[in-house]
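In line with agreed milestones, work has continued on tokenised descriptions of protein folds. One protein thus recorded appears below exactly as we store it:

>
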Amino acid sequence: MAAVAATGSEARTAGNGRAVAAVIVGLLAGATMPVAILATRYSESYELLHAGFAIPIAVLLGGLAIGLARGALRHDDMRLGRAGGRRTARFGRALGVLGIALGATALVAVAVYGILTYLGER
């Protein structure tokens, strides 16, 4: 069998796809609540309170982004830093935390609205 010499492009690693996926999912998590609120503004049949149905989606996407970022960092650690994507994974994790924070903030806002509405009707 003949040995094949690796060229410069073949010697590179494939990269860290989990880190890129963490950023994409983190962007979706961070955009979920603003898009839901914006959609209620331009819709005739939905009110602002209906944007609360997007809260679990934002939290789940944020958790998924954090999990993907954790896997990307673990993958890079297992490859002794050769997989790359550490900054990208950290950015994806930060976006996931942002998505969860926006979802939690919206949850508090909906809860306060519910309490005030309940107390106002008494």
User: Anything to note?
Assistant: Residues 86-121 form the longest helix (36 residues). The chain has a mean pLDDT of 88.
